[in-house]
Write a structure and sequence with these properties.
The chain is an all-alpha fold. It has helices spanning 27-38, 40-66, 79-102, 115-147, 155-178, 182-203, 224-261, 269-288, 295-314, 316-319, 325-345, 353-381, 386-409, and strands at residues 71-72, 152-153, 447-448, 451-452. The protein is built from 13 helices and 4 strands. α3 packs antiparallel against α4, α6 (182-203) packs antiparallel against α7 and α8 (269-288) packs antiparallel against α9 (295-314).
Length: 456
């Protein structure tokens, strides 16, 4: 650890700290501020406050909407419908609060890009959290309505239910975005994508939609609800995938910089970043332009998506050297599964286009999950995981506090006059962005003249 020293104690017995230029936070104050932001206790306390606010909003909605009348648990004008709207708003707003906190700590790189990227990431994350809350709420109230056939509840019971659902949505929405990481974001994307597709299939009015192709759900031929659910899921999933690509590449850049300092072969992280970005754009394009609107445009997006993904997997050892051999073997096996899935569709005609689309979707998300888990393991082994970064913050704070205690025990010396300038310490200060040896403690953390989050 870097030696943190201060000037000797003054004649009054108080330690004389090294003079810091105006506008710069003192080292201890800066680290304590960082620790407060990254502290699990502070995070959970804020999550509780957000949950209380969401629960109060749910109580207000229940009293206004259901006062003096009885309502069913599920169906039109039901408690479930009101709860779904409430949880969507609560989870979305809580997600924004948690995301704002996250961009001040471990993910400052998100706020340092062009504002358009930040807006796109925020919109995608808010929609995903809100949509998952809606689908979970509707399914839960429908399940209880089927279990208690014919049950209706009065205004008091409705208010209690809305209060509980709002509280849970606010708490989970905040914690999800405040602790957002590559792994948790990939899990959210997979959950949202799978839930959206399942709901779209369940809402299909035409029970034989699968006789054609999977995109039949987005043509309107299977029903208007299925149309909107399918295309919205596809579009938002593509948007979130572009955000996920930023998280993955941010982690990989940290790993690649550490390898570059050791003179090891350089990784080409841009290949993965732009490949995932193009795949996300193709998914958005396929959702915005359904096949019944323009078959050539829709099919072009799907073909580009498939080609980019195949090239990405086939060239993994070129753009990402240094990963465990098992990752390469698993990648080539999944590439082989993709080729086999294609051959089973054409020319073997074992299944129709619906089966092919489901198989390829499964291969893509299976590879993403395996790759992200291995990326997290590689970063943890290299000392760049979440626990290592939190330990670095705590170690730096303890070092500064120990230095101050040593200063307080030092003998007193005459205090300098106010006109005598104390030279600013040139000792390198270990922040959460820099550990011993130059290794970054927080991926994407940059520290400007004004401390963490300040201008560069």
């Amino acid at each position: 650890m870097t030696d943190f020293s201060a000037t000797p104690a003054t004649a009054t017995g108080r330690p004389s700290m090294t003079r810091v230029p105006e506008g710069h936070p003192r080292p201890l104050e800066r680290l304590l501020s960082v620790r407060r932001l990254t502290s699990p206790v502070a995070r959970e306390s804020l999550a509780i406050w957000v949950a209380i606010a969401a629960g109060a909003a749910g109580a207000a909605v229940g009293l206004l909407v259901f006062f003096g009348r009885r309502a069913p648990l599920s169906g039109d004008w039901s408690v479930g419908t009101a709860a779904a709207i409430l949880t969507a708003v609560a989870a979305g707003l809580a997600c924004l609060v948690g995301l704002a906190r996250s961009t001040r700590t471990t993910h400052q790189w998100m706020a340092q890009r062009h504002w358009g990227w930040m807006v796109a990431d925020a919109v995608g994350l808010v929609v995903v959290h809100a949509a998952i809350a809606v689908m979970a709420c509707l399914a839960l109230f429908r399940l209880f309505q089927e279990a208690f056939t014919g049950l209706t509840v009065d205004g008091i019971a409705s208010t209690v239910m809305l209060t509980l659902t709002g509280t849970v949505a606010g708490y989970l929405g905040f914690n999800s975005s405040a602790r957002i990481s590559t792994r948790s974001l990939s899990t959210l994307l997979a959950l949202f994508m799978a839930s959206g597709m399942i709901v779209s299939m369940l809402l299909a009015e035409n029970p034989f939609w699968w006789h054609a192709f999977f995109s039949e759900l987005g043509t309107g031929q299977a029903g208007i609800l299925s149309f909107w659910t399918f295309n919205t899921t596809l579009t938002v999933s593509g948007l979130v995938l572009t955000t996920l690509s930023s998280f993955i590449t941010q982690d990989l850049f940290t790993w690649a910089r550490a390898r570059a300092r050791l003179g090891i072969r350089k990784a080409r992280i841009g290949v993965l970043r732009w490949s995932l970005f193009i795949i996300g754009l193709c998914m958005m394009g396929a959702g915005v332009v359904p096949i019944n609107f323009s078959d050539p445009v829709h099919s072009t997006f799907i073909r580009i998506l498939g080609v980019v993904f195949i090239v990405l997997l086939a060239s993994i050892q070129i753009w990402l050297p240094g990963f465990p051999p098992a990752v390469y073997v698993g990648t080539y096996l999944m590439l082989g599964l993709g080729i086999i899935s294609t051959l089973l569709w054409f020319p073997l005609r074992y299944y129709n286009l619906t089966g092919f689309e489901l198989a390829m979707g499964g291969v893509i998300y299976a590879w993403l999950v395996v790759f992200i888990r291995n990326l997290d393991a590689v970063l943890t082994e290299a000392g760049m995981g979440d626990r290592d970064r939190d330990a670095a913050v705590q170690e730096a704070v303890d070092a500064v506090e120990a230095g101050q205690e040593a200063d307080e025990a030092a003998p007193s010396v005459p205090e300098r006059s106010a006109t005598a300038a104390v030279p600013v310490s040139t000792t390198p200060f270990t922040t959460p962005a820099r550990q011993t040896g130059g290794r970054p403690a927080y991926r994407g953390w940059t520290v400007g003249p004004g401390g963490p989050g300040g201008p560069r």
